[in-house]
Amino acid sequence: MAETRQERAKRRRTLAILRRARALVAKDGGWTRGRDARDARGREVDIKSRAARAFCVGGACVRATSGMCDELLLGDVFEAMRAVIGVRGEHAISDWNDKPRRTQKQVVAAFDKAIARMEA
Fold this sequence. Notes:
Elements: H1 5-26, E1 37-38, E2 54-55, H2 57-64, H3 71-85, H4 92-97, H5 104-119
Antiparallel strand pairs: 1-2
Helix pairs in contact: 1-2, 1-3, 1-5, 3-5
């Protein structure tokens, strides 16, 4: 069945958020675990803070919605990430992100996979 105009627009917005979030965590020092966001000294800060420099997966997704956030769209972003990392549940993304052996490279790869799936 063909995608409707509304579905295409929603997919484009979801893709834009995933790309922005990926860009945040892909920067040198741009990814963290254990908190949604940290400043350059590693201190916890609000996701919306201008001082925020590093983000967990969920924090990056929320920050990336700046100016275009609605709960349903953010839910689609989180669902896309849960699908590629193979987890379910409200805190599953945070749990995956915060695993002791998790790496920034794995996080960026998860965003790449989510983006590729949405583009297909």
